[in-house]
Amino acid sequence: MATTTELRTTSAEQTEAAGERLAAALGPGDVVALVGELGAGKTCFIQGLVRGLGATTRATSPTFVLINQYRGRVPIYHVDAYRTQSLGELFDIGVAELLSSDGVTIVEWAEMLLPLLPSGTIEVRIAGVGDEPRTITMRRLDLAR
Question: Which end of the chain is more exposed for a tag (fewer CB within 10 A), N or C?
């Protein structure tokens, strides 16, 4: 992946396709951190990402269960930090272990757990809501600690 990649989508299908394209570059241990407003299309992007990783189950947002797991060419862990109150809560549910697992970990509302994200995490920022086109910016984070 280039330092920063930016693209525009004008439909949910295009947003899903962007996620599916990113999936082709992912492997064991990769972390994808999604940031964007409510309604920006994070779940659409993730549905394409999960499909591109070989899962046959359609991804749904784990807002109330916090973590969904899917079977693909690698294990897929989908974390939704929206309803979490603290880093401690995320730690208690095992997010730190997922971030260093042999699967691909996808995190919605990743700004909630920035201190836990490993260097090399792929940040995906989605801007735009409602009927607006989406601007999707992807970059690999260098989180030297």
Answer: C
* Helix residue spans in 24-71 (DSSP H): 42-52
- 84-128 pLDDT per residue, tens: 777 777 777 778 888 889 999 999 988 888 888 898 999 999 999
Please work out, in degrees rounded to the nearest 5, the angle formed at the alpha carbon of residue 110 by the alpha carbons of 65 and 99: 75
Q: Which two tokens stand for residue 127?
A: 């801007």
Cα 135 versus chain centre, distance = 15
Q: How far is CA 10 from the centre of its chain?
A: 20
Domains of the chain, CATH where assigned = 4-140 (3.40.50.300)
Instruction: Please state whether the predicted TM-score (pTM) of the whole model is above 0.70.
Output: yes
39 alpha carbon, distance to own chain's centre: 15
Q: Alpha helix (H) ranges present in the chain?
A: 12-23, 42-52, 87-92, 95-99
pLDDT in tens, 26-48: 999 999 999 999 889 999 999 99
